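Researcher: Please predict.
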Amino acid sequence: MKLDKWQENVLKTQGHMAICAGRQVGKSTIISQDAGEFALNNPNKTIMVIAAVERSALLLFEKVLDYIYNKDKFQIKTGKDKKTGKVYRPTKHTLNLKTEALFIASQLEIAVTE
């Protein structure tokens, strides 16, 4: 995939960032690629995909899963762990990698108290 200059800059950015861009320009695609690369190259991290609406979080999470699957599907942890007996498989909200990275997709919930 050919990236725009601003997308290349996003991938080079370290730390926090804010993206101000129009609709349908590839923000989700490039952020999912950035998150996927981070998980593949940084073991033992938890990466949270959070959005105001669950549907948005799940769409971005799906793009992350697609990116990792296409880049190196063997990094996705599946099957039963022989030591613990825990069964690993991607779900609607979680993805475990062999790097011990964990993705969690969730809706941002704000508690309002009076």
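Model: The chain has a mean pLDDT of 89.
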